[in-house]
């Protein structure tokens, strides 16, 4: 007892709901009568744990910002030290419990390490490159296209479908082959996604019945050291 207050201290070895009973004997100073009061209390024993959640998914992608949130039950975010190992990763703080991760090397063993307040833990993430984009002409990957619509397109565009990060891939180049009806094929190499003069010339020559092949299409995404080969396209002109 201290200044009329009782303090209860107990060691914990298991987690869960714990209960204890208290009995207080109060003596009436005039009558010396003793009254007893009993009450049951309960408290919860939790396990200290760290939560590291990727704000997008449990994968870090090369070439983009990967936001994460870090928290630990019962510990102030100011007392936590957060670091990264693997994947050539770097970490920058963007808020009280928020960080941005950048990586440059694919791996299955990239760890976010958290320590502070007597706690030490790490969480495992994978590091991948951005998925392959899809090359499209207009909004099509292949099939038939009207002569006027085909000629109106400025070139190929790389699309990242169902990718939640802010990233843009660029077409590096492709081989364009025109196969006129009952004539020999004509092919040109094009640098970049937009038609250069040679490619534009054979596109403008399109007639119904022609077939156009976009082969050896290469794209480059953020974090790529070199272009990557992606899908080819075939169009029949109608």
How does this structure look, described?
This protein has helices spanning 147-152, 197-204; strands spanning 16-27, 34-45, 50-54, 59-61, 66-72, 81-85, 90-93, 98-102, 107-116, 119-128, 134-137, 143-145, 156-159, 170-179, 186-191, 211-220, 228-229, 233-237. The mean pLDDT is 90. It contains two helices and 18 strands. The chain folds into two domains: 50-128, Immunoglobulin-like; 134-237, no CATH class. It starts with 15 loop residues before the first strand and ends with a strand. The strands form five sheets. Strands 12, 14, 15, 16, 17 and 18 form a six-stranded mixed β-sheet that branches. It has a four-stranded antiparallel β-sheet with strand order 3-5-8-7, with no helix packed on it. Strands 4-10-9-6 form a four-stranded mixed β-sheet, with no helix packed on it. The radius of gyration is 33 Å and the shape is rod-shaped. By secondary structure, the protein is mainly β. The longest helix is centred in the C-terminal third of the chain and has 8 residues, at 197-204.
Q: Class by helix and strand content? A: mainly beta
Largest sheet: 6 strands, mixed
Shape annotation? rod-shaped
How much of the sequence lies in strands comes to: over 45%
Question: How large is the count of helical segments?
Answer: 2
Helix/strand order, N-terminal first: EEEEEEEEEEEEHEEEHEEE
* Structural domain tally: 2
How far is it from the N-terminal to the C-terminal residue, by CA?
Answer: 95 Å
User: Portion of residues in helices?
Assistant: under 10%
How many DSSP E strands? Answer: 18
Radius of gyration computed on alpha carbons: 33 Å
**Residue ranges: pLDDT <50 for 5 or more in a row?**
none
Q: Mean pLDDT, nearest integer? A: 90
């Amino acid at each position: 007892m201290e200044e009329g207050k009782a303090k209860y201290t107990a060691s914990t070895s298991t987690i869960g709901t714990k209960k204890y009973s208290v009995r207080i004997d109060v003596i009436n100073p005039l009558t010396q009568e003793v009254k007893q009061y009993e009450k049951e209390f309960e408290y919860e024993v939790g396990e200290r744990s760290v939560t590291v959640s990727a704000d997008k998914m449990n994968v870090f992608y090369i070439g983009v910002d990967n936001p994460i949130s870090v928290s630990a039950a019962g510990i102030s975010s100011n007392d936590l030290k957060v670091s990264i190992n693997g994947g050539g990763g770097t970490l920058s703080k963007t808020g009280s419990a928020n960080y941005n991760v950048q990586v440059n090397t694919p791996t299955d063993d990239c760890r976010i390490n958290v320590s502070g307040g007597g706690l030490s833990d790490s969480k495992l993430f994978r590091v991948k490159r951005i998925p392959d984009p899809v090359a499209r002409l207009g909004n099509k990957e292949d099939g038939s296209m009207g002569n006027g619509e085909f000629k109106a397109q400025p070139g190929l565009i790389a699309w990242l479908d169902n990718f939640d990060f802010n990233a843009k891939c660029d077409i590096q180049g492709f081989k364009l082959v025109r196969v006129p009806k009952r004539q020999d094929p004509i092919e040109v190499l094009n640098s970049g996604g937009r038609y250069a003069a040679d490619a534009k010339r054979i596109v403008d020559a399109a007639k119904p019945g022609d077939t156009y092949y976009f082969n050896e299409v290469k794209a480059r995404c953020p974090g790529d050291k070199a272009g990557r080969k992606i899908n080819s396209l075939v169009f029949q002109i109608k």
